[in-house]
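User: structure tokens for this one?
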Amino acid sequence: MTFRIVTGPLIAAAASLWLALPAAAEIDIQQVETPLGFKAWLVEEPSIPFTALEIRFKGGAALDAPGKRGATNLMVGLLEEGAGAYDAQGFAAESESLAASFGYDSSQDAVSVSARFLTENRDDAVELLRQSLIEPSFSEAALTRVRAQVISGIRSDAKDPDSIASATFDAEVFGDHPYATDASGTVESVRALTRDDIVDAWKGAMAKDRVYIAATGDISPEELSALIDNLLADLPDTGAPLPQDFDVQTTAGITVVPFETPQSVAIFGQKGLKRDDPDFFAAYVMNTILGGGGFEARLMNEVREKRGLTYGVYSYIVPMDHAELYLGHVASANDRIGEAIDVIKDEWAKLAENGVTEAELDQAKTYLTGAYPLRFDGNGPIADILVGMQMDGLTPDYIATRNDEIEAVTLEDVKRVAARVLKPDALRFVVVGEPEGVESTEPE
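Assistant:
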């Protein structure tokens, strides 16, 4: 159970902000540097008295100390469970009275904090947020309650075929790296966590040396600068050391995890490529054609439309901070999953050898360039995109140039990258279910 907490409603007036939006290419990103040295990106939009604030701390659950797996996830789950002068009920009541919304989330690579507040309540809302980040209580009562919720989620995941498949794949691929285990931890590791462990995780994950900030809405650069310094000044200067990079190495084969269910689930994958790789855009277009483009993708056409083996199959590039994966997912009846796997292998090999057609390339470009502006559908999504761009090392002009990068991809680029990236002899499958005619194989 990875925590994603959202607390507090937004009133209807704030919700109306989502109606009038700029085109992606017209978004004006201002770069703000505060007197204390924090840096942020801002899209100023004063027409509605509302602001969305996104904060990310690089490192996330992968920072968990040895033997303390799940500490960062549990810590994030406690941030709203009492802070400063408020207990959990008081914090929720105060955020509701302010019509403010706060969200806290964790992943392997980041701790995320989201805030939405009205201009008229900005100071009080930011002070409440500050207390949750700087003065969390981590009371024993809250720890006991939230720990039980996390353990319940872990037990639920242990009965979910998709979760089992992902956990098995990660364990096989990543060995003793933090990515090998779930960010939530195990029942045993979470039970053993103490309040001191939670405090250590808080200090290690939420520090000045790893923070990224973006805001959108009714706030000026000067106001945002003052807000940030007030909000984050008392954070620790440095956090826990980041994990080492991991070189993914897989070999072809299948791991079957027996599980009583009429439908088997399969995760498949191999090494991917970094977000800053010069071939990333060509690989992105290639993946759209292979498995990332919905019903028009080859995998969907071959596995679902032509053979009726699944309701859905897809692939996706996963450039994590310390490793790169190229993954896919399919679910099929136990007596048909073997055929689905064979078709996926064949399509992987065909694209690696032959590339794509001009029609496929044009269709993928139209899909990707047309869909991109739709992501900018409100202050919250815009702020989320901006902070993600910062963490990926992109520049503010990326929003205006991204579609140009897509359009510049050629047939030759896709063919070259497909031969480089798609490795049939490295495509590993993990199947959870009772697959007929499919058995675990040793790596080739």
